[in-house]
Amino acid sequence: MTSYKPEAQGDAKGRWLTRNVFAIGLLSLFSDAGHELTTAILPLFLATFAGSAAALGVIEGFSDAASSVLKLWMSFYSDRVGKRKPILAVAYFVTAMMGTLGLVTAIWQIVLIRMVAWMGRGARGPVRDALLSESVPAQAHGRAFGFETMMDTVGAIIGPAIALSLVGVIALRHIFLIAFIPGAITVLIVLFLLKDIPRKPQPGIRILATLRELPHSFWRYVAAVGIFGLGNFAHTLLILRAVTVLTPSHGTVQAGKIAIGLYIFHNVVYAAASYPVGMLGDRMNKKPLLAVGYALFAVMCVGFLIVGTSLPGLVALFALAGIYIAIVDSMQRALAADLLPLEHRGTGYGALATVNSVGDLVSSIVVGVLWTQVSAAAGFGYAAVLTFTGAVALWFVPRSSASNLTSH
After folding, report:
1. For residue range 8-33, what is the model confidence (pLDDT) as tens digits?
2. Degrees, nearest 5: CA angle 23-26-28
3. From the CB of residue 10, how many other CB atoms can be counted at a distance below 10 Å?
4. What distance in Å separates the CA atoms of residue 179 and residue 101, rounded to the nearest whole number?
5. Which distant-in-sequence residues (6+ apart) come within 8 Å of 354 by Cβ?
6. What pLDDT, in 10s, does the model give residues 78-97?
7. Residue 368's domain is classified under what CATH number?
8. Are the C-beta atoms of 122 and 62 separated by less than 8 Å?
9. Is residue 202 in some structural domain?
10. Is 57 helix (H, G, I), strand (E, B) or coil?
11. Under a CB-based contact definition with an 8 Å cutoff, are residues 119 and 96 in contact?
């Protein structure tokens, strides 16, 4: 069985904001600042290569697929060796390589760099989530993940804000190079601030056997998450949609700036909602709250089809996107923590992240191709149907599964 220091249950006074929670929050802030800086300008940069919605969808989809390669294995490996910090140090270093996008000369190079960087993201995500869930008592999972999501989103505000201030001032390639700075800071945080919670190694465990031992209720939950993920496309497509509808009336450069501004606003809403959502999740059944988040995504997709060129309408839709993702990012991981046994929590988070990555691969590519080959309505309509179906599937997960706070 796993062995933990008292930090795993909060500190002596029962506070949930432990050193690890704070460190992981800082990690998410700086990492997402670098990630979102590059994400915000990627559609504009891709346009210089005559890239389409389909090309952007393929880039995002294959990046997510690459991340799924390591998610399950590395999270299982962290359970097996009883250590999470070394994996995080290497993974954050690899992710920092996104800055090399400033050196590319062809679309295939963009795909390759994004895939390598996303392998780092894939390796670190479930391992970080497992360590975060172990650093607080069960009754504080919502707040811990809400705080991490909030900090992540503050970084998602800073990154696009930097990009917006520099578009038209310096070359897009040079903006990418700036992403090296927050990437380097994340590596230092892992090395000097983050603490590994001592765990007993489990050298005898095998990945397939461990997966079979995960609770049936967890797998029912993962199935609902997977259905939602098949429609949950990358938000760079929202930026591209805004650029597309605004360009005829504002011109390409101004439309790009407005779209980035909308994305920054989306992230402000996302950050503001994340911690309150986490608190709410600690006080109620997380399952219906997550189902509402899934349904809001479907509503947002329909909204993007009818809003036209209305700037107030686009503002409302980007706000809705911020609210939905605050719910989904906080509750999806907090609910998983409630369902998973401590000794296999890394493996469970890896399985959940892998299913999400497969969904991201399919959704980003399918939506991008449908948009390009058929119409925007076909792409967004597909996403709306799948995400609403995911909300319904989640609702039918047994209540006891979604409210099990003491099984671990």
Report:
1. 444 445 578 899 999 999 999 999 89
2. 110
3. 19
4. 10
5. 68, 71, 72
6. 999 999 999 999 999 988 88
7. 1.20.1250.20
8. no
9. no
10. helix
11. no
If you compute the radius of gyration of the chain from its CA atoms, what whole number of angstroms results? 20
Residues 6+ apart with CB under 8 A from 213: 344
Helix pair angle (19-47, 141-166), 10° resolution: 40
- String of DSSP letters for 347-406: HHHHHHHHHHHHHHHHHHHHHHHHHHHT-HHHHHHHHHHHHHHHHHHHHTS-HHHHT--S
For residue 143, what are the contacts with CB-CB under 8 A and spacing of at least 6? 16, 136, 275, 278, 279, 282
**What domain range includes position 254?**
19-193+207-402
Residue 5 in domain: no
pLDDT tens-digit profile of 146-170?
999 999 988 878 988 888 888 878 8
Q: What is the mean pLDDT of the chain?
A: 85
Number of domain units in the chain? 1
Contact between 397 and 220 under an 8 Å Cβ cutoff? The reply is yes
CA-CA distance, 160 to 180, in Å (whole number)?
15
Cα–Cα distance for residue pair 261/49, rounded to 1 Å? 23
Angle at alpha carbon of residue 164, lines to 160 and 169, rounded to 5°:
140
- Asked whether residue 249 is assigned to any structural domain, the reply reads yes
Residues 6+ apart with CB under 8 A from 182: 30, 31, 33, 34, 37, 155, 159
Widest pairwise Cα distance in the chain: 63
Residues in contact with 319: Cβ distance below 8 Å, sequence separation at least 6, in sequence order = 265, 266, 269
The amino acid occupying position 344 is H
pTM of the complete model: 0.77
Amino acid identity, residue 66? Answer: A
Through-space distance between the first and last CA atoms of the chain, rounded to whole angstroms: 12
Q: Which of 381, 270, 374 is nearest to 327 (CA)?
A: 270
